[in-house]
């Protein structure tokens, strides 16, 4: 969740949504994203809305404390119940992200999940995920999460090479994420993901292959692999600007992506979104699929974004301001926008093209259809799905996904 917030119109103090957003809501899937904005240290590449204890000191008082955070976030879940109304609507997915959610006590994460269960109810097969830093959990912590209702966990591995982790300012030791997978399995977690990053300055092809091999050796049923994006204002961006570390280029990123797809596919993990591979349909991240398919989700926490029925809104960024709003009985919303039918069409194309199922050609305008025909001729779209009315990326198309989708919506 990037730290910069967009502009938008004010959010009503009670958080109320237009009637149009709630029309037919009971028939649409609903997910919850719970943002935990705390980190022990700040990674050099991170631009997310997160805070260390030092950064919070003196800026929010007791309201910004992580000791009170579960209770504060529970207040927003109760607000969501009031805003969304009383129509029966079980929650299909819950995803706790950060930051480092596992800096909170396991009981706090379970309490936050319990608030959703109490206010809305969870679907019988609900997917409940938390992100975790490998150094912030142990077997007892994982067992407490599993007993409390979590059934999926995502560990930030990033790399198996010590020198790569050092450039990223990651604090865990090589081998710890793999051990966490075994501990999560022993605790009874149904699904385990490892997050990897490629293209770190100083990383070689051999380093990247070693990271992939180490991840697969641990036995997760899901792997996410993302190209490093150097965000302005981060410590890594400053180091590159000073010439302390080199910057990788797009060709290197493309080569690493091809290696990832080769290794992961060879091990039985199939891509289902450009940056995500899973062993089966049940191992996919259902929560992220809600985002990619434009479903409804409520994002609770500082800076969290939400979407319900064509209305998107986002919360104030700072934990102190967030807690103060809820303590005063006000929505913590900082701004919102009402999406037009055209906005939603464009977003469907932007997001669904990244999926293995692709996007219906019927969503494209005349110029987009012409662009799709060119992409097919250039080997960027698959012929079979195209003949059946869908635009589906080839492997080469995945490498150029941003350019392809830009042409389809222009």
Automatic annotation (TrEMBL):
SMART domains: Elp3
NCBIfam families assigned: hemN_rel (TIGR00539)
Principal subcellular localization: cytoplasm
Ranges of residues in domain Radical SAM core: 24-270
The UniProt record lists the keyword Cell cycle: no
Keywords, in A-Z order: 4Fe-4S, Chaperone, Cytoplasm, Heme, Iron, Iron-sulfur, Metal-binding, S-adenosyl-L-methionine
Subcellular location: Cytoplasm
Protein name: Heme chaperone HemW
Function per UniProt: Probably acts as a heme chaperone, transferring heme to an unknown acceptor. Binds one molecule of heme per monomer, possibly covalently. Binds 1 [4Fe-4S] cluster. The cluster is coordinated with 3 cysteines and an exchangeable S-adenosyl-L-methionine.
Family from the record: Belongs to the anaerobic coproporphyrinogen-III oxidase family. HemW subfamily.
Originating organism: Streptomyces flavalbus
